[in-house]
Design a protein that fits this description.
The protein is of the alpha/beta class and 760 residues long. The chain has 6 domains: 108 residues, LON domain-like (Archaeosine Trna-guanine Transglycosylase, Chain: A, domain 4, Roll); 93 residues, Methane Monooxygenase Hydroxylase, Chain G, domain 1; 57 residues, no CATH class; 146 residues, P-loop containing nucleotide triphosphate hydrolases (Rossmann fold), CATH 3.40.50; 77 residues, Helicase, Ruva Protein, domain 3, CATH 1.10.8.60; 172 residues, Ribosomal Protein S5, domain 2 (2-Layer Sandwich), CATH 3.30.230.10. It has a 7-stranded mixed β-sheet. Strand 23, helix 25 and strand 24 form a beta-alpha-beta unit. Helix 2 runs parallel beside helix 4 and helix 10 runs antiparallel to helix 11. The protein is rod-shaped and about 170 Å long. Bound molecules: adenosine-5'-diphosphate. The site of adenosine-5'-diphosphate has 17 residues, from helix 12, helix 17 and helix 19. Adenosine-5'-diphosphate binds next to helix 12, helix 17 and helix 19.
């Protein structure tokens, strides 16, 4: 019979017309069906998918539509299975099933007659189907476009539908419905719907995929980096230490009470360090930065001692005199006790070396229970030394101020800024104006060091500055400072300091149980013969040396002039030659080491009429010589003809001193006259004062230092300008008691005193 075929039941597998499938059969019934079909039914079988999942479906479970398939290929495999290639031929309607044998079913079938379609309608559906299929293929790069050729080359709707159904990734159940639906229009419409759904699925999947991918890739990347980092750290053997270190940084940060911006910046820096490989060059730079910044005393303050009595006791114990600075500190404490918010004064101690500027500042810090640090700015010309350099520079560091703060480890230390008069302004910048910003309490609350980059509060620091010469303090700075001038010590003060401060300090230092037996006269002998200074630094050095010699070479601690001479080298004794000749005078100078006594010499010899000046003089001093000469000649103190065929040589001794300034005119006139009139002036007279062309004496500065120096030198009479009279109230009584001060308006007075009586 033409329309009878054997039935092959395939579970979960649907074959559609024109579709090829490969299957492997292992059961004997199937193999028999193939065999019989091959022999009796022209290699054709009816493929039927039961509507049930039961293992042995009954005929009632079988559908009424099936597909006739041609057995295209069969291959018996070594394992006994039979591999087949089946190709769907046509959809048929099943008329009825009947048993072919005990275990094989056969079926009668007929071809399906398709309903007639409206021509246009079919075209529209086909186009729609093709369009949707196109969109579907375009929606994902993973879908093969091979189907396009098939659907474009064929125009039969039923064929198109079956081809597309085969192509789409539908579930078996859906495919079975398509297989059983004979109406191609219905199938087409249903397919369009399914294609659209598929497109939606793809879009959705893509979206989900993207999200998952992004998340995955970020996580993966982080994971990858972390693993890599661990690997490196492990290789270096310090992975754990590294983690601990980062934790320590975070912990440290949490202990600090920082403003939000600074906190965030440091937090981010630690996090950046965490993510950096320790091999990276930035690692070291960042670590150094964090070590600096996190260890600054952001919130650490010393508890200040504001007990006036105890502070003054301490200061008096450590330093003789210096009453002005002591009383300024007393005022500060009194005010601070009333108003704790008051900012510290910015004091500048001015005076010659060795008079206690540095050590009193240190004592102030200790007495107030603040930390102490000294910064030297002498010769400094680069402001970055104060405020640091940017981290981008190799080897960059914070400036001296932040370094001081870190060393002190408190935010309210006493910082001594030494030698502000010796800062240099040049192309590298103006450190004085930078210093001004640092000191100004309205600005220094938010002091920003270039390296640290975050504001640090300096407003509670007590700054004390020092200078030797008030004239050399940069003016804008000078304007903001509380200047306290400290003067040289006279010989009695020096003896006092030696007995009460220096010697006890040395005993302590040398751990001596016995004290020196030394008279005041011996100390004076040492001062006069072995020191030439405004302060007591050399005296301290000499006494230390003497004691060292004594305790190492003799058991006796009795010291007189003999012992001094014996134990201190000849060379250390200062020359103090008598003036026995004309043409030599003592002059009083005010230098940056304080007052000083030096000598002026004059000689005259036959030769051209000219003046030779030696001793490295400044311009002002050279002019003073010219004025002196003109004055002498106009006054006719000596015969003018003397000058015609003589050369005059004037020499200022002590070439190491800076020699300039208008205060030597009187001494110059005197030394020339002494030479020309051959009058010996002697050792115990000296002069200070500038002179006008008419012989008037002009007021000078530094009188106190000069007179103390004269006194220390043993000078008995000093001529000074009358206009300096009011400065005499500053001169220590002991000086006034032993030095005769002659106030002079015009040189005539001096001439009458020194030359007139002896004029030849
Ligand atoms: P400056 O800073 O003015 O150059 P220092 O403070 O360094 O001087 O003092 C030098 C030495 O002299 C120190 O050992 C110091 O103790 C001592 N000294 C200076 N002035 C006094 C003083 N008034 N009382 C006690 N010792 C002093």
């Amino acid at each position: 019979m033409d329309n009878l075929v054997l039935v092959m039941l395939l579970k979960d597998l649907v074959i559609l017309p024109f579709q090829e499938i490969k299957i492997e059969l292992k059961d004997e019934i199937s193999k028999k069906i193939i065999k019989v079909s091959n022999k009796k039914y022209n290699n054709r079988v009816l493929i039927v998918t039961p509507n049930t999942n039961t293992l042995t479906p009954s005929i009632a479970d079988l559908p009424l539509v099936g597909v006739i398939a041609v057995i295209k290929n069969k291959l018996e495999l070594s394992n006994g299975n039979l591999r087949l290639t089946l190709r769907g031929e046509k959809r048929v309607r099943i008329l009825n099933y009947k048993a072919f044998s005990d275990d094989i079913i056969s079926a009668y079938f007929c071809d399906i007659v398709l309903p007639k379609f409206e021509a246009n309608g079919e075209e529209v559906i086909k186009n729609k189907l093709r369009d949707n299929l196109n969109s579907y293929i375009e929606s994902s790069p993973n879908i093969s476009n091979s189907i396009l050729k098939v659907v474009n080359d064929n125009d039969d709707l039923s064929f198109l539908c079956d081809a597309i159904t085969t192509f789409l990734p539908l579930k078996p159940k859906q495919k079975m419905q398509y297989m059983q639906e004979v109406n191609p229009e219905k199938r087409a419409l249903s397919l369009i719907k399914d294609i659209k759904t598929e497109i939606k699925h793809i879009e959705l999947e893509e979206k989900i995929d993207n999200n998952i991918e992004i998340r995955l890739s970020k996580e993966q990347e982080e994971y990858y980096l972390k693993e890599k980092l661990k690997e490196i750290e492990l290789a270096l053997g310090d992975a754990k230490e590294y983690d601990d270190e980062i934790k320590e940084y975070y912990d440290k940060l949490n202990t600090l009470d920082l403003d939000k911006k600074t906190f965030t910046k440091l937090y981010e820096s630690i996090t950046r360090l965490k993510n950096l490989s320790s091999n990276s060059p930035e690692h070291g730079v960042l670590k150094n930065y964090l070590d600096w910044t996190l260890n600054l005393p952001w919130n650490t303050l010393s508890k200040e001692n504001l007990n006036v009595k105890s502070v003054l006791n301490k200061l008096n114990k450590s330093h003789f005199g210096l009453n002005e600075i002591k009383s300024r500190i007393e005022d500060y404490i009194n005010i601070k006790n009333i108003n704790p918010e008051i900012s510290s004064p910015i004091i500048c101690l001015v005076g010659p070396p060795g008079i206690g500027k540095t050590t009193i500042t240190e004592s102030i810090a200790h007495a107030l229970n603040r930390e102490y640090y000294k910064i030297s700015v002498g010769g400094l010309n680069d402001a970055t030394e104060l405020v640091g350099s940017r981290r981008t520079y190799l080897g960059s560091l914070p400036g001296k101020i932040i370094q001081a703060i870190k060393k002190c480890n408190t935010k309210n230390p006493v910082i001594l800024i030494d030698e502000v008069d010796k800062m240099v302004k040049d192309y590298k910048g103006d450190p004085a104006s930078t210093l001004l910003d640092i000191l100004d309490s309205t600005q220094n609350v938010h002091f920003v060091d270039n390296y640290i980059e975050e504001p640090f509060d300096l407003s509670q620091v007590m700054f004390v500055l020092t200078a030797n010469d008030i004239k050399d303090i940069p003016y804008p700075l000078y304007d903001r400072l509380e200047i306290i001038e400290l003067s040289s010590y006279n010989i009695f003060e020096k003896v006092d300091i030696a007995k009460k401060y220096i010697l006890p300090k040395i005993y302590d230092e040398f751990n001596m149980s016995r004290k020196l037996l030394i008279k005041d006269e011996t100390i004076m002998y040492i001062i006069n013969n072995y020191t030439k200074e405004a302060g007591v630094r050399d005296l301290e050095r000499i006494l230390k040396k003497l004691i060292t010699k004594l305790i190492t070479s003799t058991k006796s601690l009795v010291v007189g002039e003999l012992e001094v001479v014996k134990y201190l080298k000849e060379g250390e004794s200062l020359e103090n030659k008598e003036i026995n000749n004309s043409g030599v005078v003592n002059i009083l100078a005010y230098t940056n080491i304080g007052g000083d006594v030096t000598r002026l010499e004059c000689s005259i010899f036959n030769g051209d009429e000219k003046v030779i000046l030696t001793g490295q003089l400044g311009e002002v001093l050279k002019e003073s010589v010219m004025v002196a000469l003109s004055f002498i000649r106009e006054k006719n103190y000596v015969s003018n003809t003397m000058f015609y065929d003589h050369t005059l040589h004037i020499h200022f001794l002590s070439s190491s001193l800076k020699k300039d300034g208008p205060s030597c005119g009187v001494a110059i006139v005197t030394v020339i006259l002494s030479k020309l009139l051959d009058v010996v002036i002697g050792n115990d007279v000296s002069f200070t004062g500038e002179i006008s062309l008419k012989g008037d004496l002009i007021k000078v500065g530094g009188l106190k230092e000069k007179l103390i120096a004269a006194y220390n030198y043993g000078i008995k009479k000093v001529y000074i300008p009358f206009d300096n009279e009011k400065d005499l109230k500053e001169i220590p009584k002991v000086v006034l008691d032993s030095v005769e001060i002659k106030l002079v308006k015009n040189y005539d007075t001096i001439f009458n005193d020194l030359f007139n009586r002896q004029k030849k």
